Structure formats: structure tokens, C-alpha cells
């Protein structure tokens, strides 16, 4: 495999991961449509729009030319927003080679089709979905760029591909585990954003730590329930991609989803929240997708449903929380269709 690595695109997470790669490998190129952003990365070693005050490795190069970015690359990391993933993957197709390693680090669904990002990429590049590698886990770009200790997971049905991705990213500050359950890793990474929105909304309403702890716990059960229904391994949701990512996204000041939820709890409307954020809030689109998935598979997702009503039906956040608290009494351990260990590995 060529030692060149291409990264698409230069948002906060893409830039942070490109920096990790550039610390490990000499030839890393990041692609952006913005000539101003490219010039700043190349000349000042900064990406001030997304990661202000963060110094980027001097060997990280940027370009607006997709062909230049991908040419002779042995690996391509795609970190496009979920709504742009198909367009980016389609543009990449013209320069794609079968010997390239494909990794993505986007947490979300294609809202119109409910497809996961690995499915979208495989369709556009004409490769097996199981050969795509998914990178996920508790990891804020603002901390990764400062080389704070971070641990993530890379998942693929192709164990050689996962091991190759692990090698590319692994260093003293960035620890990487592998996992075969790419379905569960993708579902956990996307769905936890909904719960993070809810946690932020609870905080914005001033409901305190007790309420947030309950919301996170029941949210994890909700994510696991739909994940198992779709065929994921339940153990994945108790790992880095599940509870690990949920905790960091639902409690950190760096989390866009938590900040967006907090603003909703303070009485801001969705359009106001998005205008003030200035960046993609994946949890909003994911809530819309989860609403459809829940109905399609007949799996109850009460937190996602209430958030859907707040986001898309103008429901008052306080009434939404009251609706959650006022649900019929249940036992804590809800039945789920769990497979045996042998079935998971067959």
C-alpha cells in the first residue's frame, strides 16, 4: 500500500484526524473546496474556521484538487457530513482504485434512504460494504488536535482492512481498537447524537444531573434496543462506540449536539440554533431518520420520538420531558431479542 493518505474533507473532525495521520506518516493530503482554507493550512498550518488557535503539523498539505489529493494514495479517509457523503463519494469514484483502503468517520444516516454511511460509500465506489472501515468512539476534534489521550474503535468485516486502519492511526496519544461489528459501531455513533441533544435540552431547562443521568441510561437502552433489532451485537453498545461516545457527546462543552440541545432547552427555535452554531449538528438529521426507523421496525424509541416532536413539530421542550417522565410504569430490564455468542460469530 502506498504511504500517501488522502483526507476528505477539511472540517473540524477531518482536520483533527488528518493531524493524527500526519504525526504518524509523512505524506498526508487534505482536500477542501475552499481555496482560502487550503491556503491557510498550507501557509499558516491552521484551520481557524473550525479549530481556532490549533497548530497543524507542517507536513500536512491541503489542496482544492480532488484528483491531486487522491492520486497515488494508499488510503482515503472520508469525513464528510452525512448529507454530503454521497456527493463526495460519487466525486471520488473517478479516481478510485481497488487497492485503496477506504475509511470513514462520519456519524449519521442518509436521511432520505435511512442508509448508513458505509452503504452509501459502497454504492458509489462499487466496493463491498464489508471492506469499508468505520472509525468511531469518544473523540472531540478540539481535544484530538491538542493530542489529548483519546481511544477509538475501527470496525470492518474485513479484518485486514481494520488492522491496516489501526496501524495508520495508532500512536501514543491516539489508541485504536478493532471491532468486527461495523453495523453496531455505525448505529451507535449515529444514534447517540439524539440522546446528546436530549441531554443538552435537559440541561438547558435546568433539570440537573439526576435527570440527565436517567436520560443517558434510558437513552443507551433505547439505542441498544433498535441496534439489536437491526442485527447489531449488543456488546458493541457497552463499548467505546456506544456508552463511551454517548458519555462524551452528552456531557462535553465541545459537543455540538449537546450545545444545540441546550439552546433548545433555553427556548431557541431550531432555525435559530442552527444559525448560531454555524456547523453541522448531525443529531437533528439523525432524529428525523430514527423517527422513521422506529416506525418501520416497530421498536419504541420514546426519547427520539419526543425530540422529533420538539425539532419538527414545534413541541415545547418542557412538555416533551414531562411526557417522558409520565410514561406508563415499566420494569427496568426490558426484553430484547439477543443472539447467542455462536450466532454473532457465524
List the helices and strands and how they pair.
Layout (H helix, E strand, L loop, with lengths): L4 E4 L3 H13 L3 E4 L3 H10 L15 E4 L2 H5 L4 E4 L6 H8 L8 E4 L4 E2 L4 E2 H9 L7 E4 L4 H4 L5 E6 L3 H11 L4 E6 L2 H23 L3 H23 L9 H12 L4 H10 L4 H8 L4 H16 L4 H11 L4 H9 L15 H4 L2
Parallel strand pairs: 1-2, 1-4, 2-3, 4-5, 5-8, 9-10
Antiparallel strand pairs: 6-7, 8-9
How would you characterize this protein structure?
- The chain folds into two domains: 5-180, Rossmann fold (3-Layer(aba) Sandwich), CATH 3.40.50; 187-337, N-(1-d-carboxylethyl)-l-norvaline Dehydrogenase, domain 2, CATH 1.10.1040.
- The mean pLDDT is 94.
- The longest helix has 23 residues, at 182-204.
- It has helices spanning 12-24, 35-44, 66-70, 85-92, 117-125, 141-144, 159-169, 182-204, 208-230, 240-251, 256-265, 270-277, 282-297, 302-312, 317-325, 341-344, and strands at residues 5-8, 28-31, 60-63, 75-78, 101-104, 109-110, 115-116, 133-136, 150-155, 174-179.
- It is built from 16 helices and ten strands.
- The protein is an alpha/beta fold.
- Its main location: cytoplasm.
- It catalyses: sn-glycerol 3-phosphate + NAD(+) = dihydroxyacetone phosphate + NADH + H(+); sn-glycerol 3-phosphate + NADP(+) = dihydroxyacetone phosphate + NADPH + H(+).
- NADPH binds at residues 12-13, 33, 50, 107, 141, 256, 280, 282.
Amino acid at each position: 500500500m502506498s504511504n500517501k493518505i488522502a483526507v476528505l474533507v477539511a472540517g473540524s473532525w477531518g482536520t483533527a484526524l488528518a493531524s493524527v495521520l500526519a504525526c504518524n506518516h509523512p505524506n498526508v493530503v487534505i482536500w477542501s473546496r475552499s481555496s482560502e482554507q487550503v491556503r491557510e493550512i498550507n501557509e499558516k498550518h491552521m484551520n481557524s474556521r473550525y479549530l481556532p488557535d490549533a497548530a497543524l503539523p507542517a507536513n500536512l498539505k491541503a489542496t482544492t484538487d480532488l484528483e491531486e489529493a487522491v492520486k497515488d494514495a494508499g488510503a482515503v479517509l472520508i469525513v464528510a457530513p452525512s448529507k454530503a457523503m454521497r456527493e463526495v463519494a460519487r466525486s471520488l469514484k473517478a479516481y478510485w482504485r481497488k487497492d485503496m483502503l477506504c475509511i470513514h468517520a462520519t456519524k449519521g444516516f442518509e436521511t432520505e434512504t435511512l442508509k448508513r454511511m458505509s452503504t452509501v460509500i459502497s454504492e458509489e465506489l462499487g466496493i463491498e460494504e464489508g471492506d469499508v472501515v468505520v472509525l468511531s468512539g469518544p473523540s472531540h476534534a478540539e481535544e484530538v488536535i491538542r493530542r489529548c489521550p483519546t481511544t477509538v474503535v475501527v470496525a470492518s468485516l474485513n479484518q485486514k482492512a481494520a488492522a491496516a486502519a489501526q496501524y495508520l492511526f495508532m500512536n501514543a496519544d491516539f489508541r485504536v481498537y478493532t471491532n468486527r461489528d461495523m453495523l453496531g459501531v455505525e448505529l451507535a455513533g449515529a444514534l447517540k447524537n439524539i440522546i446528546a441533544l436530549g441531554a443538552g435540552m435537559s440541561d438547558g431547562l435546568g433539570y440537573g444531573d439526576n435527570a440527565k443521568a436517567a436520560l443517558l441510561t434510558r437513552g443507551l437502552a433505547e439505542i441498544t434496543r433498535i441496534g439489536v433489532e437491526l442485527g447489531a451485537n449488543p456488546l458493541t453498545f457497552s463499548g467505546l462506540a456506544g456508552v463511551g461516545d454517548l458519555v462524551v457527546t452528552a456531557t462535553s462543552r465541545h459537543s455540538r449536539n449537546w450545545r444545540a440541545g441546550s439552546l433548545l432547552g433555553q427556548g431557541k427555535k431550531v432555525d435559530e440554533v442552527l444559525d448560531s452554531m454555524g456547523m453541522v449538528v448531525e443529531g437533528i438529521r439523525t432524529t428525523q431518520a430514527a423517527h422513521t426507523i422506529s416506525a418501520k421496525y416497530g421498536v419504541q424509541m420514546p426519547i427520539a420520538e419526543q425530540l422529533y416532536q420538539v425539532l419538527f413539530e414545534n413541541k415545547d421542550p418542557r412538555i416533551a420531558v414531562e411526557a417522558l417522565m409520565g410514561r406508563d410504569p415499566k420494569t427496568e430490564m426490558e426484553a430484547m431479542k439477543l443472539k447467542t455468542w455462536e450466532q454473532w460469530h457465524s
